[in-house]
Design goal:
mainly alpha, two-stranded antiparallel ribbon, about 130 residues, 2 strands, single chain, 4 helices
């Protein structure tokens, strides 16, 4: 609770981690990245002018996630005829909601390609100019 109303720039690494744990365990349910971007995105972009050209674009796409700005469609039940309006998603590859299914499928596909052995990641630095 001590983090509300405090600028993210004033938080240390431990504070940020503690806040993430708070949100995951005890924090308000239903909060999404899009909600945070909608609330703090514009001031953040105004303060941090050194963002790449892609970063504000991605933030804006996520802010517009499931809003009328991206259009929508009507879903109807074949059985009872009930209708509801559903807004379109942003479909940005960085969006945690839009790409969660694609990410899970990609991970499952990569797991299926693994051999039944131990893997090690080795990095070697070339010391001679090629």
């Amino acid at each position: 609770m001590r983090y509300f109303g405090k600028s993210p720039d004033l938080l240390g690494r431990e504070d940020v981690r503690a806040y993430q744990v708070y949100l995951a365990n005890d924090g308000p349910s239903g909060r999404e990245v899009a909600d945070i971007f909608r609330r703090y995105g514009e001031p953040y972009r105004a303060q941090h002018t050194s963002l790449s050209t892609a970063q504000p674009r991605v933030m804006t796409a996520i802010e517009l996630y499931r809003t009328a700005a991206l259009g929508g469609h009507v879903e109807a039940c074949d059985q009872c005829g009930h209708r509801r309006i559903a807004f379109n998603s942003c479909r940005d590859r960085h969006c945690p909601r839009c790409q969660s299914l694609a990410r899970a499928q990609w991970l499952e596909d990569r797991r299926a390609e693994l051999l039944a052995t131990q893997y090690f990641h080795v990095v070697d630095k070339a010391t001679v100019l090629i």
